[in-house]
Amino acid sequence: MSLTEIRIGGFGGQGVILCGMILGRAACIFDKKYATLTQSFGPEARGGACAVQVIISEKPILYPYVTQPNVLAVMSQAAADKFVPEIRPGGCLIIEKDLVQFKAPPQKVNLHPVPATRIAEDIGRKIVQNIVMVGFITAVTQLLPPEAVHQSVRRSVPPGTETINLMAFDKGYEYGEKERKGLVDSFMV
């Protein structure tokens, strides 16, 4: 890995930003890599398209802004509409499959749908959907060791919520591993 640009978009709020913080912390603190994080939310924090951008590299990062993401994870239709046109050809597009639909699927990307909301609801807390997505991203992209991200989740979530968040990470990671190995429906469009 030389340099990987990641953008995560969804409904405005702290959950999207937390996803980026977890990945960046995992890279810097637990995997000895470099990372930058920029966030975009303002009025969007009330439910519109919100995004966090993370760059991960084995070398110092000279420019902190994502220009054409290698990895794009979208958890809302508004985020998909806004950010999908910017993904790098051949990039990894991860969608919350129950919330994002395409009239015509994007071309020349690796599409990975995940039912993150349903998985979170099965755990008993819809609010951990973002952590399910972090687990899925970790498994599908193989950018960071799962142990590093697991430690980052533990350190990043509010005290008292570690158990449910780690369970959400594990479920997302498990689903992502099945996806990566071709055991669930996935396709190249």
What's this entry about, in short?
With 189 residues, this protein is of the alpha/beta class. The chain is built from six helices and seven strands, in the order βαβββαββααααβ.
Account of the 3D structure:
This protein has 189 residues and is α/β, with parallel strands linked by helices. The protein has one domain: Pyruvate-ferredoxin Oxidoreductase, domain 3, CATH 3.40.920. It has helices at 14-30, 77-83, 116-123, 129-141, 146-156, 162-180, and strands at residues 3-11, 34-40, 49-57, 71-74, 92-96, 110-114, 187-188. It has a seven-stranded mixed β-sheet with strand order 2-3-1-4-5-6-7. The longest helix has 19 residues, at 162-180. The protein is globular and about 40 Å long.
